[in-house]
Amino acid sequence: MVKLALVTGANRGIGFAIANGLAAKGMRVLAGVRSEETAAQVRADFKKAGVDAVPVILDVANAAAIPARLADIERDYGAIDVLVNNAAILIDAPGGFAASLFDMTDDVFRRTWETNVLGPAATIRALVPGMKARGFGRVVNMSSRAGQLSGMGAGFPAYRVSKAALNALTRIAAAEAATPNGDVKINACSPGWVRTRMGGAEASRSPEKGAETAIWLAALGHDGPSGGFFEDKKPLPW
Ligand code: NDP
């Protein structure tokens, strides 16, 4: 049966490449976007590329509204089998790696937390119980090497904390979703350093390359892993 996938933040960057990749694998794809204007643009982009993907409005910064919004989406399109939590923001400023914890404002921390942690937590809590009940589900949380505790250091404080929390969320959700049959698999991945608005023009990888591991995890077979963290389809230290 054709699987229905939802990718958040799918109008550009790595999310757009993931949506394309999942459609190429034969999934029906719901591409999460933030506005009607963006929906119209991305609908045209998918049509031009011949991709079977439909934009749906989903702002992950408003976690309280996510359960009702996802219920509406599932009523309109059917039960979601595959969830890719890709949307995120990096607003630590100024200077990226030079941005210091000691200059960080509560506002930056709060906004980063809402989008990068509360949003994915809300989508997981809304969709995984249904996946478990139906006996199939795949969840991919788009994390980052910036979230590795094993390599934790200075810079990007709000973003780093949010991605470390997303990694923790991945392990908790995978443990709680585990069944004897292993039919719901929840993993995190790092895309590498990717040429997008977030990654910048100097980054080493294309969005398509950055999307590869997420696509692999979204399409895992029955024997695939759960509760892991991967880059280039290989385990990455937490
Ligand atoms: P971009 O900034 O290029 O794209 C981010 C996407 O997320 C956009 O589609 C954006 O939508 C969407 N988004 C942001 N906030 C929200 C929200 N509140 N609700 C819904 N959608 C939202 O980022 P990338 O493509 O580079 O990053 C994708 C993922 O990969 C992120 O999780 C990021 O942390 C991770 N990552 C990226 C790296 C890189 O080098 N690029 C490295 C490591 C991890 P809009 O157009 O409306 O703003």
Can you tell me about this structure?
With 238 residues, the chain is of the alpha/beta class. It has a domain at 56-67 and 82-235: NAD(P)-binding Rossmann-like Domain (Rossmann fold), CATH 3.40.50. 42% of the residues lie in helices and 15% in strands. It contains 6 helices and 8 strands, in the order E-H-E-H-E-H-E-H-E-H-E-H-E-E. The chain is globular. The relative contact order is 0.15. The mean pLDDT is 96. The site of NADPH dihydro-nicotinamide-adenine-dinucleotide phosphate (NDP) has 29 residues, from helix 1.
Question: Topology of this structure?
Answer:
Elements lengths: L3 E4 L5 H12 L3 E6 L2 H14 L3 E5 L8 H12 L4 E4 L20 H29 L2 E6 L14 H21 L6 E6 L17 H12 L10 E3 L2 E2 L3
Parallel strand pairs: 1-2, 1-4, 2-3, 4-5, 5-6, 6-7
Antiparallel strand pairs: 7-8
Bound molecules: NADPH dihydro-nicotinamide-adenine-dinucleotide phosphate.
The site of NADPH dihydro-nicotinamide-adenine-dinucleotide phosphate has 29 residues, from helix 1.
What do the pLDDT scores average to? Answer: 96
The 3D shape can be described as globular
Bound molecules: NADPH dihydro-nicotinamide-adenine-dinucleotide phosphate
Percent helix range: 40-55%
- Percentage beta strand: 15-25%
> Gap between N and C termini, in Å?
34 Å
List the keywords.
single chain, 238 residues, alpha/beta, Rossmann fold, eight-stranded mixed β-sheet, 8 strands, binds NADPH dihydro-nicotinamide-adenine-dinucleotide phosphate
